[in-house]
Structures are given as structure tokens and as C-alpha cells.
Amino acid sequence: MKKTNLYIIILLLIFNFGCSKDFLDRPSLDSPTLDNFYNTLEQVQGATGVLYGFPWFDFNDKALHSIGEVLSGNMYTGDPAYAPYMNITITATDSRLSEAWNSFFKIVGWANVLIKAFEDKKAVGGDAAILDLGIAEARFIRGVGYFYIARIWGDAPLLTDPSEIAQSGEFQIPKAPQADVLRFALEDFIFAENNLPDNAAKGRVTTFSAKGMMAKLYLYQKNYEQAKIKSKEVIDSDKYGLVDDYFSMFSSSASNNNKESLFSLQWVISNEWGSQNSMQAYIAPSNLLMTGDGWSSVMPSLDILAAYESGDMRKRWSIMQHGDIYPAWKPTREGNPEFNQFMANGYRYDVDEPAPIGHRTPTRTSVTKYVVGPGSESEPVLAQKTQIGTHILRYADVLLIYAEAVLGNNASTADISALDAFNAVRGRAQLMDKSVITLEDILHERRMEFAFEGDYWFDIQRQGLARAKQIIEAQNRGHYADNGDLNPLAVTLNLPGGGLFLPIPLSETVQNPKLNEAPVPYY
């Protein structure tokens, strides 16, 4: 997104917000700054545009897959960077945990800076209509950040004005209970719903983005009536739909911000590290890429491979398996005519041919989601940099939220509107309609639809500890040895603290010991 406000970009890039003193400090937004900036919609959106990418990078880079997919059993890894999530040996010193924490509190901190700046501008006579749009955008994204924080860590500190705390000199902030964190996020979404437009520039959030996130949060809280109302408002808007070409949503940046996207992260290839989507480097096979990347650090687990129904096209669209050919991807190797001939009609995923022509992972598969290929004029790739957007909320999610909300606490439902929503998602995958659906049907559909998008752990978590242990401890988390024998792996779901939340990084609790104490009500 165009970034016209140089002052705010510099401010955001040079300050590292965490729960330490750095999180609370910021430069003074004095009257000359307020006089010179935020006078036009372009300036306001130039500032809020930063919130769609940079602060999310450390979460998007590895933590999204670690927490949402490896921990949940959807992904296997042989990489020590991800291994604690597969083996469920996560500690407070884990690097992915720190990256996620820092990322989400950057999101919160950067949003807070902008909200305060826009409010100050309004106080000195700025255009309220323009500034309220900026506040709504920032509060929407802050709300999403806190929704993730509440699901990953449970209890967490709630902050709104870093300057006020900095001036007080009290930098040790207590945690608020998870229920308060969720309420705080919901209040941000409600403000965004009331102040964002029905239509916005491509890639920017709207009132329906807020309604969709409200529906997802309500579902997490098991508030089925409100989840049904908000998801239905999105459906009835007729502004969104399912993209016919599911594969393209995750393999081509030309499909960024399509009709299915309610909220996506925006990435660009630039000289600024952190502006790009780096996922491809960790999930793609090495013989596809031209840059020395493609490490297959994470890959589909044997458990999810066995979970797909026969005929579910999402398996083909989400996973590379032996013999699959991708005509648009044509990697070449200088001085290797055999490789070039093998790939002449498109990239062929082959686990039997020796490297570098073939590529064999421990589960004999690779992920295709967020892999755009070796690069071309129309799809630039620069080492670990692509510009494909990361989906945070898709219309398919809204449809399945609606179906589950209609089901509520019932054992099953044959409600026509719920079936229409549910079967629309199945229909795109070329699966037969169902005439009655249960919670297990919906949760299975969610797992297949959003595989490798970082959501499955939260679907497991919201079922409660007993059911989560059942699911995780029944999974096949193993892999194949070189000779084809199965090396099984069974794990016990026993996170630190004995619940379903991850530990706060040790680096944060050392700086702020109050994070180790019982939560203090915020409201």
C-alpha cells in the first residue's frame, strides 16, 4: 500500500514495541506534526497502510505455521526451529513464541500510536470524518492482534496509550483475564463496524470485515446467537463470494484481495526486510526455487494426509504429491539439461528421482499454499521474498461460522440456510452435499478448508482440554524412513501450566514480573 506519511513510517520502523519500556515509549506527536499531517484521506491511509504488513512479519514468517499447524498436528517438521511444536515441548525460551509475542505487541503498539495521533489531530480541529476512518482501521487491526493474543496466551496485558504509561514511569503492567482481552478485542471490532465504510479500496478492511471478525470471536466464546447474526450480515451483503479457483488464491499474487478476502495481510518485495511474505522459503521444495531457498522445513503431516475425503480437490490444491505437475512453474538449472528437460512442461513433483531432479520429504509431500513458484515477470520472487497476501479471514470462514452458529449446542441440524452455507464450501471442493450436519462435520470441513493457514490449533483449543487431548494424542505425527518404513510418533498434550495456552516468553516475564502474577481485571 502507498505510504505517504514519512514521519509515521520512520516512527514505526525505528521503535521496537514490546512489553518492556520500549513498548511504551514513543516520540512526542507535537503540534507541528499534527499541523503537517493527517489533513487528507491519503495521508491517514498512508499511515494505517503500514498496519497491514510490517508488524505482522515475525508472526507470518514461522510462528503462524508453528502454532497453528505444527502444534495442531497438520504439519510435520524435521527442523529444530519448529520441532518443539510437533513434540509439544514448548518452553518460555522458544524463539517462535518470542517472535509471535513481539509481532502482536508491535501490531497493538503501532495501532495505539496511530489512534492517539488521530485523536490528537481531531482535538485540534482535524477532519473528524477522515480521522475516524483511520481510527476504525487501526482499532480493527488492534482487535485482530488482541484476538490472537487471547487465543495463544489467554491472559495478557491490555494497553491503549503508551505515552500515558511512559509519563507515569510505571512500566510493569499486569495481565488482564482472557475474558477481558476478548472483550477488549470485541469493542475494537464494534467500533470498526460502526465507523468503517461498506466499500473500501482494494485490500482495506470494511464494516463487513469487522462483522466477520466479530462472528469469529463470538463463535470462540460460544455465543452462537451473535455469531449467527454477524456472519449472516456478511452473507446477506452480497459483497463477497467463494473464488472458483481455490488454488490461485494461494499460488498467485494476482489473486490478492479477491472477492473471498475480508482481511488479508499485504506484502511487497522491497529492500526493506519484513515487507515481504517469506513463507515460500520454508515450505517449498528446493528443486522448485532458483535462489538456494526451499528448505521444506514444514510439510503436510501423515495425519492430515489421511484425513481428506476421497475426491476432495483441496488435497490436490493444497499439497504436492508424487506425480503432480504444475505447468506454470518452469524451473531451470544452468548446465543441467537433464533437469531442464524433466521440468520443460512444468514442475513435476517426484519423490523417486534422485536430487536435484526429485525431492523427497519425510512425509513424501510438500505444501503448495503460499508457494508461487520459481518466479517470473508476472510473479516476482527475490530469494525469501514474495508478495502473495496472507489470508486472515476468508468468506469460506464466514460461511462455516454461520453453519456452526446455527447448529449451536444441538447434536445435528438440517436447517436449510446452514446446509447452504456448509455445502457451498464443500461444493467448491467437488464434494457431495450433506443433508444433515454435526459439529464433527463442520470441524472436519474447517480443517480441510483452512489447512496450512494457521487456524487449526484454535479450532482444537476451543473444544476444551479433554477433547483437545483426545484429538492430539490420537494423531499420527510420524514420518517415513528412507527405506519406506513408518517411524511413528505419539505425543502427549501437556503444555506448560497444564492448559491450552502457551507460556509468555521468558524475556518478557524477566522485564515485567507482573506477567507471572494472577491477572487483574481490566473492566
Poorly predicted segments? 1-32
> How much helical structure, as a percent, in the residues?
40-55%
Shape category: globular
What is the third-level CATH name, the topology of the domain at 6-196?
A: Serine Threonine Protein Phosphatase 5, Tetratricopeptide repeat
Sheet with most strands: strand arrangement: 1-3
Secondary structure class reads: mainly alpha
How much of the sequence is in beta strands?
5-15%
Taking all residues together, what is the mean pLDDT? 92
Count, helices: 22
Using DSSP, what is the number of strands? 10
Broad CATH class of the domain at 6-196: Mainly Alpha
Compile the SSE list and pairings:
Elements: H1 6-14, H2 21-24, H3 31-36, H4 41-48, H5 57-70, E1 75-77, H6 83-87, H7 95-123, H8 128-153, H9 162-168, H10 178-195, H11 207-220, H12 224-236, E2 261-265, H13 279-283, E3 298-300, H14 302-307, H15 313-318, E4 319-320, E5 325-326, H16 337-342, E6 347-348, E7 366-367, E8 390-394, H17 395-407, H18 416-428, H19 439-449, H20 456-461, H21 465-473, E9 479-480, E10 486-487, H22 506-511
Antiparallel strand pairs: 1-3, 2-8, 4-7, 5-6, 9-10
Please tell me about this protein's structure.
With 523 residues, the chain is mostly helical. Among the domains are: 6-196, Serine Threonine Protein Phosphatase 5, Tetratricopeptide repeat (Alpha Horseshoe); 279-379, no CATH class. Helix content is 45%, strand content 5%. It contains 22 helices and ten strands. The chain has a two-stranded antiparallel sheet. Mean pLDDT is 92; it is low at 1-32.
